[in-house]
Amino acid sequence: MKIGFTGLELPEGKIRYNDKTLVALSMKDKPKKVSPFYVDFLLDEFDKCDVIVIARSTILDLLIHDMEKVETRLARLTNADEIALLQRCLNNLEMEVPLCDLQLTDQEISVVTTAAPFSLKPVIQVEGNEDIDDIIAWALDKAGLMFFYTSGPKESHAWLVEKHSNIVSCAARIHTDLARGFIKGDVVSFEEYMSCHSFNEAKAKGVARLTDRDYVVQPREIIEFRYNVAH
User: Fold this and answer.
1) Strand, coil or helix: 221
2) pLDDT digit string (tens) for 191-209?
């Protein structure tokens, strides 16, 4: 995950996300290993980042680049529908609305992408005095991402996936063998897991649900995977 920023006093480079959920899991399970999530903060490198964070007061510093790109692209177009679309984009940019906040279809996005605008990526506007962990959390949410977790005596681990991911794709995030040999998933919410001594107790009490491969994983859920891979 790479976050590009400008106009803000933020550290550059790899930053550890102090995830309150992972901290709570590690305090509860006391694992031998904790695997947190790290974010790369890139100053003024919008072409290389996944999400852009910018001070609300300097949003035009970003959008003016997109205005120029859209105007250049408009001058080359002959298709009336594409011209109307890019003109709508330009009007919104002039009103200081990033392109990511427009309601665009997949087809429209593919047209707008030809102008290579920065603000089609998720853009977070902040005041400049926010905690870096809050900024990371907002950036992940804006990008449509979430965490699920695995936790126990050996390791507590935060896994980043797209929202609405099914449990097999979450298994693949850990290892392809888990997805290939997936049988079932034992899933428990963070709150219910914290009320149990262990995952085995969560299963014994019935708060851990046994799910099939089409189950859509929810944010902050803790999962154990049942799988079998023939060698």
Assistant:
1) coil
2) 999 999 999 999 999 999 9
